[in-house]
Amino acid sequence: VQLVESGGGSVQPGDSLRLSCAASGFTSGFTLDDYAIAWFRQIPGKRREGVACISRTESGGSSYYVDSVKGRFVISKDNAKNELYLQMNSLKPEDTAVYYCAADPSNYYCYDNGFPSYDWWGQGTQVTVSS
Q1: Distance in angstroms (rounded) separating the CA atoms of residues 129 and 131
Q2: Cα 65 off chain centre by
Q3: Maximum CA pair distance of the chain?
Q4: For the purposes of burial, counting CB atoms within 10 Å of the CB of 20, is it exposed (0-12), middle (13-18) or buried (19 or more)?
Q5: What is the mean pLDDT of residues 31-55?
Q6: Residues forming a β-bridge with 73
Q7: How confident is the model at residue 28 (pLDDT cuts 50, 70, 90)?
Q8: How far is Cα 82 from Cα 92, in angstroms, rounded to an integer?
Q9: Contact, 115 vs 42, CB < 8 A?
Q10: Which of 108, 66, 106 shows the shortest CA–CA distance to 88?
Q11: Neighbours of 73 (CB within 10 A)
Q12: Ramachandran region of residue 85, left (φ > 0), alpha (ψ -120 to 50) or beta?
């Protein structure tokens, strides 16, 4: 499985960005609905943190957001394109990080008292928010 992020860049506080993650290599007939999918971010020198995720459709397909992005970020997917998105609005300097998309074939829930481990990762895309 290959995940490729795009859409990062440098913006000013209050601006918006939309990250995309193109997924390929799934078993024939499988779509993003069949996996727990998520966006993580990492600041140099800090642990990678989960930002938002969507559980498998068979597990309800619910979304989860960490408090710091709730109301500002929206995670979505397009099964026909096998693409995952993160719409980021009202960006703040503290949102500056490398953003990664992730997927996993074993997790039924994308978040369960914490983000579980994910097997598949993209290479990351840099988001910089600065005035």
Answers
A1: 7
A2: 10
A3: 46
A4: middle
A5: 95
A6: 88
A7: confident
A8: 29
A9: no
A10: 66
A11: 22
A12: beta
What pLDDT was estimated at residue 8?
Answer: 97
Q: Which residue, chain included where needed, has tokens 């994910």?
A: 118
**Residue 104 DSSP SS3:** strand
> Helix H segments across the chain?
none
| Span 49-81, pLDDT tens digits | 999 999 999 889 999 999 999 999 999 999 999
Residues 6+ apart with CB under 8 A from 75: 39, 52, 53, 54, 63, 65, 84, 85, 86, 87
In the block, tokens 């996993």 appear at 104
The token duo for 121 is 């990762």
- CA 113 from chain center: how many Å? 18
Query: Regarding beta strands 9-11 and 125-129, do their DSSP bridges make them parallel or antiparallel, or are they unpaired?
Result: parallel
Structure tokens at 112: 């369960």
pLDDT, tens digit, 9 for 90 and up, residues 76-131: 999 999 999 999 999 999 999 999 999 999 999 999 999 999 999 999 999 999 99
pLDDT at 71: 97
